[in-house]
Design brief:
Pfam families: Glyoxalase. This protein has about 150 residues and is an alpha/beta fold. About 20% of the residues lie in helices and about 30% in strands. The protein binds the ligand C[C@@H](O)C(=O)SC[C@H](NC(=O)CC[C@H](N)C(=O)O)C(=O)NCC(=O)O and nickel (II) ion. The site of nickel (II) ion has 3 residues, from β1. The ligand C[C@@H](O)C(=O)SC[C@H](NC(=O)CC[C@H](N)C(=O)O)C(=O)NCC(=O)O binds next to β1, β3 and β4.
């Protein structure tokens, strides 16, 4: 078994593509307009994953846009999408310059959070840093349950 994608439903497809592609840096891999179901699917991949994603063998985000408006309550059970970045400060600066609020700034040079137009939380992690939890759980032994 292999991880393939995470699907998120979006209220405004253009606003979402502007955030995920123009600001966060993902690239569009595939798009399906489904008349019968009245929805559009847009598959996005990070630059490092794009070649594998084109072969349907790489991790992606699947944006689902329902043409008929629906209410999407913020399911607490969904946490975030996480991306590894080469320079977390440069990534956050680029996002801030594009008008994106940094909900959790990278004080520790390790982890930052921003949100999509639909409030989907996006975690940015500095490449080379430990992937474990930081403050305030830094003293917690990673028992795999955090
Ligand atoms: C292409 C493949 O990766 C899919 O995920 S298609 C799954 C399918 N999606 C839809 O029907 C989109 C429109 C629908 N109104 C919706 O909002 O999901 C599907 O079965 N969706 C149901 C689900 O729970 O994901
Ligand atoms: Ni899917």
């Amino acid at each position: 078994m292999q991880y393939l994608h995470t699907m998120v439903r979006v209220r405004d497809l253009e606003k979402s593509l502007d955030f995920y592609c123009n600001k966060l840096g993902l690239e569009e891999v595939n798009r399906y307009d489904v008349e019968a179901g009245r929805f559009t699917l847009v598959f996005l991949a990070a630059p490092n994953d794009i070649e594998r994603a084109k072969e349907k063998d790489g991790p992606m985000v699947e944006l689902t846009y329902n043409w008929d408006p629906e209410e999407y309550d913020g399911g607490r059970n969904f946490g975030h999408l996480a991306y590894l970045v080469d320079d977390i400060y440069a990534s956050c600066q680029k996002l801030m310059d594009a008008g994106v609020a940094i909900n959790r700034p990278p004080r520790d040079g390790h982890m930052a959070f921003v949100r999509s137009p639909d409030g989907i939380s996006i975690e940015l992690l500095q490449r080379g840093e430990a992937l474990g939890p930081q403050e305030p759980w830094s003293s917690m032994e990673n028992t795999g349950s955090w």
